[in-house]
Amino acid sequence: MRLGLGSYAFRWAMGIGTPSPAALGSVPDLIRETADLGCEVLQLADLDALESASAAELTDLRAHAASAGVALQTGLTGATVERLTDHLRIATSLGADLARVVLHGRGIEDEREAARALTRLAPDYEAAGVTLAIENHFLTSSASLVELVAEIDSRAVGLTVDVANSIACQEWPDQTIAALAPFVRCLHLKDYRIEPSPDGVGAAVIGAPLAQGWSDIAAIVEEIAPHAPEGMAVILEQWSPAGSSLQDAITTETRWRRESAMTARSHPALNPLWSTGGTRAAV
Question: SUPFAM superfamilies given for it (predicted)?
Answer without folding.
Answer: Xylose isomerase-like
